[in-house]
């Protein structure tokens, strides 16, 4: 087992359509209001300063002003501006210069955050909690599984989010898992009462419905496609069920861990046959042979829960997120023990979800509210993709063209979008010449770095 100590770090209502406005709108109105107040104050100061050039003020006048100050507070500011000494005038000029510089920064920030320059859809608010979501593979549509059992469909764009339809009563309880199939014709979903459905994405009509697909009291936690007819689900108790749509039933069931199945992916073995890789709460990665219906291998337990897994490096690597925030990797075909570990930046912040962006870049959803990007092979932190403030980021998905990332929390009714198109031409060497990736906010984050904030003034 190899630990990388040397890293290349420089150091319930139906969904509402009325809430598609971006968070930026409120910020713009507030800051523009501040700008108007500042402009008004600047005009008053200019008028007062010009009066100093037109009048000669004596010491007696100053004494008189001081007396008036005790009698009339309303005249205090105006009279002192007219009768102040040369030192006060210099202070006013310096303060005005500083305020003008700050105003330039504010103007630059307003321009950057303007809706006209937005390169991602506005926040999508649906009024009820979200249990799962999935990007359509071919169109600008996102499906949301809601806490009332409905599935809502939205068309998204940089200008607005349009509610297309709601497939009512697909489930009777909260949707826990939701995925479009490869063509986008069907939606696979599971709810809290363990019913699993395959429904038509356009009409909501059921293709198959597996009632009580898992043991009562242990809801479905993960789903993975195997082919166009076969898929698998995992539950809280460590049970994996494999389903066949053609037979409208379960192929087989397997339980090799006593803890929750947190994620599943399908990986072809050396014979190009599909196997199922499952991460669980006991810190193991379990590989199941789908043809023999048996477990192939189970890794040594990691010191923390394994929360998510994806393939990278042209499917030669399996990368797993952990409960302590680190990323561990396995060589495909060798799952007995992980061969590499990349420590976390945010100590104690669990990785809830992983999404690969390129063959080397993976994005982590953390329970401290941050979304981080990491380059693997070589291992380097790239920076922060986005923030959910103090709310855990539980769900993450990437659009089919790789340009947009969507995220939300299990305790939220809002989906946030992040433009990650810049990763297509990402230059690792240039990136590290000017930033500290631990706290660096990537262009998608909508947060301006200190160095970028004042770069326009240089």
TrEMBL record:
Transmembrane segments: none annotated. Residues 40-50 have a biased composition (Low complexity). Keywords: Repeat, WD repeat. Residues 20-37, 51-105 have a biased composition (Acidic residues). WD repeats lie at residues 227-253. InterPro entries: WD40/YVTN_repeat-like_dom_sf, WD40_repeat_dom_sf, WD40_rpt, WDR55/POC1. SMART domains: WD40. Residues 1-105 are annotated as: Disordered. It holds the Pfam family WDR55. Belongs to the WD repeat WDR55 family. This is WD repeat-containing protein 55 homolog. It comes from Aphis craccivora (Cowpea aphid).
